[in-house]
Amino acid sequence: MTLDEERLNQHVQTAITDFGATAHAPLVVIGDELGLYETLADAGPLTSAELAEKTDTAERYVREWLPSQAAGGYVTYDSETDRYTLTPEQAAVLADETSPAFMVGNFQVALSAARIESQLAEAFRTGEGVGWHEHDADLFHAIEYSWRPQYAANLVDDWIPALEGVDTTLEGGGRVADVGCGHGASTILMAEAYPESTFVGIDPHEPSVAAARERAAEAGVADRVSFEVATAKSYDGAKYDFVTTFDALHDMGDPVGAAAHVRETLTNDGTWMIVELFANDCVADNLNPMGRAAYSISTLICTPCALDQEAERVLGAQAGETGIQEAVTDGGFTRFRRAAETPLNLVFDAKP
Ligand SMILES: C[S@@+](CC[C@H](N)C(=O)[O-])C[C@H]1O[C@@H](n2cnc3c(N)ncnc32)[C@H](O)[C@@H]1O
């Protein structure tokens, strides 16, 4: 078989770019952990010696790290002064964890998921699942670190107001369950915004629930936020005005059973807000950078998680609006619509 030289070179170039990105990923996490990006953003332009001094790190490492970052377009280099800096846009992505553009958490997610690579390869052979709890503990923090900026930017200001009547209910004092709450980032943001309401965060993963309790105490909202270790099909309580599920429905082994239980625990005019990763309905329409990231994370984390449970309907993280709607209406909800979206998320409004 003859190879087309030009096409071959394109594939090699793609692989070199991705090899560079893979090797670069731990250096992004290290840059965040050591405050290298933040210092460049605050005090740049800096030489490697100045950055090392300000961050109390070893200059020889920093001298190698900086061009690796500049080659990838993550920092900006001035060859005349031999100094490096971050543009405001680079700083928003790498140095400001309150920005919705902050992306460092996503690198942490990919790296921590990869730590159980051999277990995942074995799961490909057997078809068995890999439970949420089987991942490296860094993953649970990474998920919080990656999603919190999105929720902080959108949840209270855009997503809840896009739901019919929910903002008014919560202002007056509503009962809320946040199902699949993880470390409780969304639960706490809502509790801070709606002091008259009460919130229960629910998650089957005990260490995440313990972390969520700590976060709520630190945020000073523990008086109106509690957490329960339970699945979406088994949590206690009834007559919730508002149930939320953030980036978790597709991780569940029985999303239809989960929907049925949510419906049972809602008031008749209650609302279920489902936040999912952005996806189009057709595979072909997801073959882009976002789809690549989401299918990869789904293969490493979400799909194995659902397969470890009932595996009744394994949605994957790119189920799209139709896939989510079918699961929700099969669970008994009669009304479903897309209420909002961002480049990363779809937000759905479901009613009994
Ligand atoms: C990707 S994390 C999202 C966590 C959190 N909602 C957030 O956005 O930061 C998915 C969460 O779903 C939880 N989960 C998995 N299966 C579940 C189930 N059957 N019922 C409820 N939660 C579940 C996991 O324990 C995990 O905390």
TrEMBL record:
Coiled-coil features, chain-numbered ranges: none
Superkingdom of origin: Archaea
Write down a Pfam family by its short name: Methyltransf_31
Q: Which CDD domains does UniProt cross-reference here?
A: AdoMet_MTases (cd02440)
Q: Where is the S-adenosylmethionine-dependent methyltransferase Rv2258c-like winged HTH domain positioned along the sequence?
A: 25-95
Tell me the ranges covered by the Methyltransferase domain, including all copies.
Answer: 172-276
Q: Which SUPFAM superfamilies match?
A: S-adenosyl-L-methionine-dependent methyltransferases (SSF53335), Winged helix' DNA-binding domain (SSF46785)
Q: Which UniProt keywords apply?
A: Methyltransferase, Transferase
Q: Which InterPro entries match?
A: Methyltranfer_dom, SAM-binding_MTase, SAM-dependent_MTases_sf, WH-like_DNA-bd_sf, WH_DNA-bd_sf, WHD_Rv2258c
An individual GO BP term:
methylation
Q: Name one GO molecular function term.
A: methyltransferase activity
Q: Know the name of this protein?
A: Methyltransferase domain-containing protein
Annotated organism of origin? Natronosalvus rutilus
Lineage summary: Archaea, Methanobacteriati, Methanobacteriota, Stenosarchaea group, Halobacteria
